[in-house]
Design goal:
With about 60 residues, the protein is mainly alpha-helical. It is built from 2 helices and no strands. The longest helix is centred in the last third of the chain and has 15 residues.
Amino acid sequence: MVGLKKFVAHKPEKEVISLRISSDILKSIDDKAAEIGISRNELINQMIAYTLENMEESSN
């Protein structure tokens, strides 16, 4: 597996959306957000941004 850089939290501008997520994943997100000291919303936003920046390019 290729080494990925560490995830680091920060705070950008946002838009309101609705998202359905499994209870187990939500619990993990809530636990991690509390551990870091940021909101659930902020952690989800930062994880999405990190993933988009580090995804493999599509072959399509």
